[in-house]
Amino acid sequence: MSRALLSPSDANRWVRCQASVIAQRGILSTGDRTAATAGQETHRRGAELIRGACRGLPLPSGYEDPIALEYAAHVIKILRTFGVFGGPCLGIETPVNCSIVHSECHGTPDFWVYDETNNDLMVIDLKTGYRPVRARDNWQLICYALGVAYTLGLDSDTHVYLRIFQPTISDKQFDQWPITLGALKGPEYLEHLQACAEIALDGMSMAIAGHHCYYCKARYCCDALQSAALDTADYLGEPIPNETEGQTLATELTILNHAKVMLTQRLDALTEHATAVIRGGSQIPGWQLSERKGRLAWTLGADETAAALGLIDKSVTLRKPEELITPTQAIAAGLDPSVVAAYAKRSKPKLVLREDNAKEIFNG
Ligand code: SF4
Fold it and tell me: Are 59 and 305 in contact (CB under 8 A)?
């Protein structure tokens, strides 16, 4: 199946900036694809392990891709709970038609499963990046859930569990949002998606810059993002009054955190574009590509590399010494907390924005 014009995996962007759909057409990605390619490979391996488990194969121990292994183990537990290991109620990297949203909307969810007895539908998306992704109001998962639900003909009472599995985020392994299919079919979700999809394809919408610009291929030539970044630069030049506190402080912190994202997006986009221009043989006044060599990295996985090099030269120790467990793990393992306290300390508390802060700060 070719990539959809209104791809669910881009829905978190086109719901917020409908102009991005037309703006990106015909633009090839110029950025570094290493992380994306590694992520795709992890998805492929994870799906392969899950399909193997459905055929009764055990999970391998010491697998070369720990994220794929962790994801597969997580999904297999769910399959056991749902009691489904194949058939029409299971999708493992299976394309889904989301034409209920728009005829141009279709995609491939990482995993979904439906339990007829309890009327439960679970949709999981594996994320391998380090930017935390939330399940709540996640338009990609919503598109997939609606597509699966309409394909299976599920009723509005279906309990839908939308789950982001992201083991690269340290605080928790997954984030889940429970909702009913009836709520997803309402004005807040399905109807909103349908309206955004129509606007996106009529070619008349305005670009709206925000966090969603991050993976937009048009960001190096986007006026909206440029203007947001330049406004930020102007704003940063203004003096900071000494008495800034309370509501003013909260407002300014929120604005500056948003502004930081806008500036980073624009800078990253221009850096990627300039790198591609110079690589293509053109010049950019005052800029050149660094002669510095990139980091030398093994091309095979750790186990394969160690096995191959161990055959060639046994005298070199290829593995790093094992690291210490954390202070918390040491306490859990039985070490006296007062002893641990003498050798460990906590990092300073970090200033973080509370959830739904914008309403509170900007008075709804
Ligand atoms: S860079 Fe941002 S504002 Fe511009 S088209 Fe893309 S998503 Fe929209």
Answer: no
